[in-house]
Structures are given as structure tokens and as C-alpha cells.
Amino acid sequence: MSTKAPSLAQELLAAHHIPAEANRLYTEKVLHKPLILIPTVPLSSTSTSTDARSRRRQARLDKQALKKRKSDRKPHPLSAKQKRQLKIYEIPPEARKWAIYEGLIKLWVRYVQGVLGLSLGERKAQKKAMGTGQEPAEVEKEVRGLPVTKEVASKLCGADFHGAEVTVVRSRCVGRVGITGIVVKDCKFVFEVITRGNEIKVLPKEHSIFRFEVPIPGQEPAEGKNLVFELHGEQFQNRAPDRANKKFKVKNLPDL
Question: Is the pTM of this model over 0.90?
């Protein structure tokens, strides 16, 4: 039966110590020597909180990076400078023709007649609701008279003038007086109109008075008796959607 050959450590210990001492040192220092391992996860409370804070910070950074990537893919609105460069709100030359916008006049007349309450159907319904007992012919005759009160006429300041045929009757700039055209853009401070000469004119509302006519329903065009209104441009220096809910106050206007 063969015996196991001594290891290199045993030979070195036997060369310097007696056999009993060499066996003891080999058993305690080599065979049963403890192996100390360093833990990969810290066990202290401070280290745990620091590691949790790092995870939260990393999660927050990942969320911000994801949000930025999504926003980069989303198209951004154009700036005012880019809109001017692209001429988004400018009418192209081929569309600057009176015949294109002439049909808007009839649509706007019907709209403003509804604002003023001039339609025969509305007046007849109002008289019927009031129980006046008037005949339809009498109501129609009254409508063809002068049915517009101050309260109803004040609604014109909140009306939309896209499609209206307006004329400048007074202005501090003499060159604008007499210009007639269809309103194609009702901006906050100016009217852009298309004239019969197929030209775009920009008419400031400030220091200007505009005139427009509203036909009375049921009246023959040959009679030529229309309701004529003159509005001071300074009274409606607002965008059309903003004027709808605005309350206008009586105030002194400068002399033109």
C-alpha cells in the first residue's frame, strides 16, 4: 500500500522544525487556515441608503432622457420669424382676385342680418311670442321699416367682418378715404381687403371710420333702401374671436 507523498509545505516545515512541531504548524496554519472574503454588498445602513439614492437618481435621469428623446421626435410649432419667412398668412398672388371672394358678401349679409335680427322669420316668431295679435303683413311692413335699435346695433362691434364689403369714409390719412373692398383678413389692428382692381389693401382700424350696408330682407334690390352703418375702427381693435365676448363701453372718440 503506497503512502501519499508529502507536499511542498510539509517538506519545508520538516526541514526547519522537529516532526511534531512541523505537523502542528501544517495542520493549524495550512489545512485549517480561515479564508476571509470581502462582501460585495455593504451591510451598513449608510451604505444601503446611499445605494438606494443612486438608484433613484439613475431612474430619474433615465426618465428625463426618455422624455427628451420623445420631444425631439415630436414636431415643434413654427416661430413667428419662421412663419414670416414661409409667408403662411400671406395671400398668394394667384388668389388675389375679386371674383374669388365676391360670393362671401352674400354669406356675410345673411350672417349680419341674423345678428341684427332682421330676418322675417325671427320677427314673426317674436311677435307671435309676445302675443300682439299683429297680422303677418303688418309684421313684414314693420320689418321693412327701421327695426334696428341701439341695443341691436351695438352687437355689430362684436361681429365678424370676414366677407364684408367696407368703405373708408373718414381717416386721418387722406389717401385711404374712398377705398372699397371685401375683408379677407380681420386682424386685431388692420383690415386686409381685396379691391375690384384685384389688389390687397391694408387698412388700419385706428383713426378710421368704415361704412357698410345691410339689405333689408324682402326688399327689392332696385329700391336701394339699405341700412347703412358707420363704425369707428378704434372701437373694435381686437381679433374677431375676442370681440364676440367683449363688452363695449361708451367713451369719447378723438376727432378725425
Answer: no
